[in-house]
Every structure is written in structure tokens, then in C-alpha cells.
Amino acid sequence: MIEIENLSGGYSRVPVVENVSLHVEAGEFFGLLGPNGSGKTTLFKLMSGGLPVMDGKVLLNGDSVLDMNQMQRARHIAVLSQETNVSFDFTVEEIVQLGRYAFQKGIFKTLSPYDKELMEEVMKITSVTKYRHTSFHMLSGGEKQRVLLAKALVQEPEVLLLDEPTNHLDIKHTFDILDVLKKWQEERSLTIFAILHDLNIAALYCDRVGLLHEGALTNIGSVDVLRNKNKLAEIYGVETWSQPHPTLARPQLLMNPRKKEERSVSLFENCTVQQDEEAVSISFRQPLRTISNGVAGEGIQWIKHFANFHVDKNYDSWTPKDDVENWLDERGLPIEQSVGMMTAVKTEHAVVKREVLNGIAFLVVVTAGTGNAVDITHRETEIQREKIGTINTLVFADAHLTDGALVNACMSAAEAKVKALHDQEVRDPLSGSLATGTSTDSLVIGVTQQGERTSYAGSGTFIGRGIGYMVYEATTEALAVYRRWKEAHS
Amino acid sequence: MFSSKTWIYYSVSLLLLFGAVTFGLFYSSVTVPVSHILHIILEQTAGWGFLDDLPGNTTAIIWEIRLPRVLLALFVGASLALAGAAFQGLLRNPLADPFTIGVSSGAALGAVFVIFFQITIVGLGAFTLPAVSIVSGFITLMVVFGLVRLSSRSMAIETIILAGIITSAFIGSIVSLIISLGDQNEMTQIIYWLYGSVGMRGWSYVQLIVPFAVIGSLLLLTRYRELNALALGEEAAGHIGVNVQRGKVFILGGASLLTGAAVAVSGTIGFVGLVIPHLVRLVTGPDHRHVLPISMIVGGAFLISADILARTIIAPKELPIGVITALIGAPLFAVLLIRNRVGKGKAI
User: Fold this and answer.
1) Which residues form the domain of B214?
2) How many distinct structural domains can be found in chain B?
3) pTM greater than 0.90
4) Residue B233: its chain A contacts at CB < 8 A?
5) Is there a single domain that holds both residue A226 and residue A282?
């Protein structure tokens, strides 16, 4: 489709863009990325005829773009730039109509019925039909950009060149523009060549990207190119962290500000534990890096408040998450900074243990009830409905763990819990075998992310051993409390 | 092809022009009945006179004095208004007109030069005056653009006006120099000429302006689509298929032709090119397809009316017509400038 061969060019005699070669497939969304001054705009202008080419070729379906006159080029290629000022009080419709300039025929150059039909369709897709008689100047930035997009699309281009088209737009308008483009790209197999400087936007929308560095195109490939931390550090001079998008198989980048956050409060100073008949809750002044399967606040997050709520043993709800969030709210805990879980065990019976092991401070809170004890290894055809007889384990430590180490810490805590259950001879009532847990156990691992960063938290590490010891001790004690209470009430 | 609204715009502006022409022919110190005027015109143009025994001096007044005067005002007004509309569209600048961007002064310098030194270029004859005016106007335009290029990257509205004023001032001093070299009589003559007038010119001046006005108008009127596209800026206009370089040459050439010819026959009449397209745009919207022709029609009507005022306000003496247009145009220019600063980014 587009074939760029050894393209060089620039403003004066020294080329800004040097020896760039690139192939873009028909119907592809290609993103040209690179820091300011890397030559993106120069390359773009060389392609759109805005700058003379010093050397090389730009071919569109085998025809040289550089040899086309403006009129011919406009029938194949449309351009949407970051900001266009329109002089005089033209209406939206008049602006859109300008896109048909290269197609108007006859002495009077009037719009054909086809032109009009196309304009209607494009204005509808870009949602500007309702502004058609409105002055362009009266529109907001996002609306203006949609009008200019409509003007570009009525050119019925095979190739659309975008120069940071969403530069000044807020999130909603950015996505509006790009979604329209993506739709048009898919329906009309439009080829899009876009300069984007928001790498995360590029990661979401591009089929392929190329990184331009000092006028040379490097690292052309899928958006996974952006996961190359070292390359991005070299080109942008910024440390980036690639994270998976939660619902799409695309990376998103996170950046670290150079100035590190000052956080040197120790675990115990930092926290307050509140235990009453409604809940046992632990709050930290500064958020902890947390992994959990809590009813609310699940996943890996930065969390300040952890609450384990008491519920009646006959509690049965289709909306447990809403309930927990309501309870968090009632206690004045901000939902987005909290993990919430529930148990039928009396929360006054929660075991809270603090200890420093091998220089690492630990705080562990366990509530244990074994009404629904299950041997997970037992072959059972019937899965028990969720009931509230659970072991909820909350482990907090003064450690600095990677995401992998957090998973490792979960394993350590689970192993210790199983050991405690076995030593207390808790059995699965259905199979009669030793139970490994209950049907609805919850776990929280929260770490302060202070000190040296470690990638492991298993039995081969002090942190892993500490978790194991603390969880075992607390679970054993909690089981004993539970048993005593049970005996007293039966 | 045209909406009913557009028909109304054209009808009203043509009616205005017709009214101005009629009034211009009719209204004067010597009253001549409309029927007589009609007879004279038909008699002179087609030999279809329907009245007998008109005094010879009436015929002379109408045919030799008033009609050429009205026609000259019509052509000059139409030329200046069209040139103004084109400059504004090309420079994306509602404050541009031949006067404010210095083309008029440049053309005037050329004209003063020809008049003062009694130059005749061989082969051009009487057309030496408009030809030199047009060329010197065009050169001045290039100088102004050069100044703008050197002083700022963008063709900013204020920069163009500023460069135009600087250039005008410089040219004005050269004109003054030339005038001061002459005697008292020549001085008065040139100064009066500089203020602009369409009076006492006769048919020869009408003949001078017509060919340039026709060619210049054709050059500009056929460029309305390019002028519309240029509202997006030169780069974006190129992206939709406009050959911007060629378009610019046509538009600047056409506008310079119109301005130079108008200045050559009538002196520097300011603000017509500023006020008329602006008013027209307010009514019709910015589409150059209609702004250009309607500006021509209204510009013609406006200058005929201004001329009627110029010769009647302090009759039997005459005011220079440029005084009238400046009295109307300068305050409006100020208003536009202020609005432009206040509503930055908004089109006027």
C-alpha cells in the first residue's frame, strides 16, 4: 500500500529524516512515535508534500506520491492535523464541503448528488450533523476536530495522515475521534498513518508502530514494541513500566516521576487496628501495595484500608460487592482505597499478631470459621454454594515486593494456612478427609514497598518464612478461639 | 443552484447599484429630467433617441461629464472592493485591503512618477499610467510580504498591517519629496489627485480602467473555491487538493491589477476594499462564491454614492472622494481592529 523507500529530507541542507524505509499495509493503522524533535512532523510533511524530498521515494499502490500534483494527491490522501484555525465565519457544512474540492467537476464546480450523500453520511458518523449550520468558531475543540475529521473523510481517502489529531482534546473527545477513525478504517479498509505522542493511545489503537529516533526509524512492529523498557529509555530518556491493559491484550505504559516519593513510616507506626462486633478493620496512613481476592478492592492495588465485616451466618445476597461497599461507606472508608471482605465469625474473635522477624515487621489478622471446611483435593461433583464460614487472612509486612513476589507471598500464606488446618485436624465433612481451607477463604497481602526490592517471597526468603510463621501461628490461634466459642454455644 | 436567499442578495445589491447610477446621473446643480437622461444615453449608445430639441450643453453635461464620472466611480469601487475581498481571503485577514497593506500607496507612487515626469512608455501610450501603477503596486506588495516574512514566521494579521503602514509611510515620504520638487501649481494638483477623485476624468480614464478591471475580475472571480479553501490555511488547503502557489499568483496578480488600475485613474481612495467586503460578508456569509461578485456590485454602488456626497456637501466646491471613504472607513477599521483583538481567534 504505502511504500517508503530510503526517504531523506529536512528544512535546510541537513536532512532531519534520514534514510527511512517503511511498508504500511492497506487497512492498517500505523503509529509513528518518537519524542519531540525526532523528525515525526518532518517525515509527515515529506509524505504529504509539505516539504521537498532530498532522496528516496514514497509510493502509494506503486505510484509515486511525490510526482502527483495536489489535486491527484488529495484524491488518495487526506490529512488531519492537530489544530487548524479557520478564518471567517464558515459554517460546519461549508467546511466539510471543502473536502470535496478535488472531486468537483464542470465549469461551475457544484456538488453532485453523490457528494451531498457522502457528506451526509460522514457528518452523521462524526456526529456533526446537528451543527451543520453552526459557525465553526462556535464549536468546542473536540467538536472542531470532528468537523475537520469529517472534511478529511469526505475526501474518501485511501490513506489518512494524522498529525497528533487529539493533541488538545480531553479523554472523551480523543476517544470519540479515534473510535470513528477505527470504525471507518475497518469498514472502508482505510489506511491510517498517524503521528501520536501519547504512547498509551498508540498502544490502544495502532496495529503496528514505529519508533523514530533522531531521524531514523527503529523498532517497527506490533504495539508490544512499547514493552521494550530499555529502548524507550534510550529514545525518550524516561523510565517506563509496561502494564497489561486490564481487558485488552495491549500494553499500557506507566511513568515514574524522577523525584521519589518520601515514604519512610514503619508498618506499626503507620497503622491502626479497630476491632468491634461489626468488623475488624486495619487502616494505614500510607497506602500499601496489595494483592487480594477481597469482595471489594480485589486485584493488585494501592490500598489504605482493610475491613473484614461480620455478617449473619444465614447471610445470602446476590450483591455481596454492593453490600460490602455500602458497609465501607458507612464506616467512612473510601471505597476506591479499601479492601472489604466478610465473615460469619465474630470479628471480636479476630486474632491480631504483630512481630518483627529477621528485621521485618509483620502484622497478621486472621478470622477463622470452619463450617464449610473443604478438602480441595477431594474429587467432589457437587460444588458448595458460597456460605459464610471462612478463613480470612490479612498479612501486612514491611517489605518491597515485585508483582511476582506478591504471588509468591500468597503461596506462602496459603501453605501455612493448610498446615495449620492439618495440625488442628480440621476435616471436610463430606469426604471426611483433612480440609485444606473453606469454600470462600479470602487473602490479603499488603506490603509497604520500603527497603530493597525483592522478586521472591517463598520459603527460601526471610519474608516468605516470616509470612509462613505468622500465618500459621495466627490461624492456629484463631481456630482454637473458634472451637472454644463453638463448644460454649453448643 | 442558488438558494432563494442568494437571489435576494443579488437582486438587492443590483437594485442598489441601479439606484446609485440613476441618482448619480440625475442629482446635480443643473437639473436634467430623467427622461432626458434616458434619451441621451439611448441616443448615444444605440441611436434610439425618442426626444427632439435637447440643448447641446445638456447632452454634453450628461454624456461627457456625468456618465463617465459615474462609470469611473462604478469601476473603481467595484475593483477596489473585489481586490479587498480577495486580499482578505488570501491573507485570512479581515483587516486587509489594498490601502492598509500598502498596495495603493505603491500604485500611487508609480502614478505620481508618471504624471510628474510626463513619462510615456513606447508601445503603451496612454496605458503607461495604469501599467506603471500596477507594476509599482505589485512590487510594493512584494516588499510588504518580504517585511512580514523577515519579521515573523506567521502571516499574523497585525504584522501585515504594520508592514503595510511602514511601507506606506516610506512611500508617502518619497511622494512628498517628488511633490516638493515641483512648483506650487503641480503640488496642489498632485495632492488633490492623491486624495482621490473620479471627477473631471472623462471617457479616456474609463477606457483606461475597463480592460484591467475586466481581466482582474475574471482572474479573481474564478478563484472563489481556492479562496474558500485558503480559510483553512495554506497547508491544509494544499491537503484538500488546492494548488496554493498557483492560486496565490492568480489572486495576488488579479488583486494588484485591479488596485493599480483603480489608483491610476482615481488616486488613492482608501477603505472601500475594507468596508465593502466586510459588510457583504456580514449579510451573505463568508462563501467567496457570493462575497466576490456582490462586493463588486456593492462597491460600485458605494463609490458612486460617495462621489455624489463629495460633490454636493460643499457645492459648488468638491471634496476629494477619498475624504468621504476615509471618514466612513477609518472608524469602521478601528472597530474591526478592536473586535479582532477582543475576540482573538474569532473570525470577523
Assistant:
1) 73-341
2) 1
3) no
4) 84-85
5) no
Judged by DSSP in three states, B68 sits in helix
What CATH number is associated with residue B228? Answer: 1.10.3470.10
Which of B233, B240, B285 lies nearest to residue A101, judging by beta carbons? B240
Cβ distance A84 to B232 less than 8 Å, yes or no, reads yes
Contact at CB, B347 and A94, closer than 8 angstroms: no
Contact with chain B for residue A74, Cβ under 8 A: yes
**Residue A75 at interface with chain B, using a CB cutoff of 8 Å:** yes
One domain, residues A212 and A73: yes
Question: What's the whole-number mean pLDDT along residues A325-334?
Answer: 93
- Are A296 and A399 within one domain? yes
Compute the distance between CA of residue A327 and CA of residue A240 in angstroms, rounded to an integer.
Answer: 37
Mean pLDDT of chain A: 89
Q: Is residue B58 domain-resident?
A: no
CA distance A79 to chain B (A): 6
Substitution target in A65, A98, A110 with the highest count of B β-carbons within 10 Å is A98
Which of B218, B228, B239 to mutate to probe the A interface, most A CBs <10 Å?
B239
Which residues neighbour B45 within 8 Å (Cβ) at sequence distance 6 or greater?
none
Name the H helices within chain B: 4-26, 34-46, 56-59, 67-91, 103-117, 128-151, 157-181, 184-195, 202-221, 224-230, 234-239, 244-266, 272-284, 288-312, 321-342
Contact A360, A463 (CB under 8 A): yes
Report CB contact under 8 Å: B239, A94.
no
Does B37 map to a domain? no
For residue A375, tell me if it sits in a domain: yes
Q: Shortest Cα distance from A41 to chain B (angstroms)?
A: 13
**Residue A86 in contact with partner chain B when CB distance is under 8 A:** yes
Which chain B residues are Cβ-neighbours of A74 within 8 angstroms?
A: 239-241
Q: What is the pLDDT of residue B275?
A: 87
Which of B2, B88, B240, B279 should be substituted to probe chain A, the one whose Cβ sees the most A Cβ atoms within 10 Å? B240
Whether A98 and B229 lie within 8 Å, measured CB to CB: yes
Q: Do A242 and A282 share a structural domain?
A: no
**Of A255, A279, A313, which residue constitutes the final position of a domain?**
A255
Peptide bond into B316 cis (omega under 30): yes
Question: Is A263 inside a domain boundary?
Answer: no
Of A48, A86, A109, the CB nearest to B225: A109
Between chain A and chain B, how many beta carbons pairs sit less than 8 Å apart? 83
Interchain CB distance below 8 Å, A90 and B231: yes
Specify whether A245 is located in the same domain as A294.
no
Note the pLDDT tens digit of each residue in B142-189. Answer: 898 888 888 776 666 677 778 888 899 999 899 888 888 877 777 777
Q: Does A27 fall in a domain? A: yes
Give the structural domain span for A451: 271-488
The closest alpha carbon to A397, from A405, A387, A389, A385, belongs to A405
Whether A70 and chain B come into contact, CB under 8 Å, resolves to yes
Selected residue with higher pLDDT from A383 and B33: B33
According to the model, what pLDDT value does residue A189 have? 87
Rounded Cα–Cα distance for residues A29 and A159 (Å): 10
When divided into structural domains, chain A yields a total of 2
Q: Output the CA torsion sign for A308, A309, A310, A314.
A: negative
The string of pLDDT tens digits covering residues A212-227 is 998 888 889 899 888 8
Among A205, A230, A255, the domain boundary falls at A255
CATH number, position A28: 3.40.50.300
Residues A288 and A409 in one domain: yes
- For residue A437, what is the domain's CATH number? 3.60.70
Q: By the CB < 8 Å criterion, does A89 face chain B? A: yes
Give the per-residue pLDDT at A476. 96
What ipTM describes this predicted complex?
Answer: 0.83
> Is A265 contained in some domain?
no
Q: How far is CA A35 from CA A195, A412, B88, in A?
A: 11, 44, 38
Task: Name the CA dihedral angle for A376, A382, A386, A391, rounded to a multiple of 10 degrees.
Answer: -20
Nearest-Cα residue of chain B relative to residue A98: B229
Q: Which stretches of A363-429 are DSSP H helices?
A: 403-423
A101 and B231: CB-CB below 8 Å? no
Query: pLDDT tens, A292-317?
Result: 999 999 999 999 999 999 988 778 77
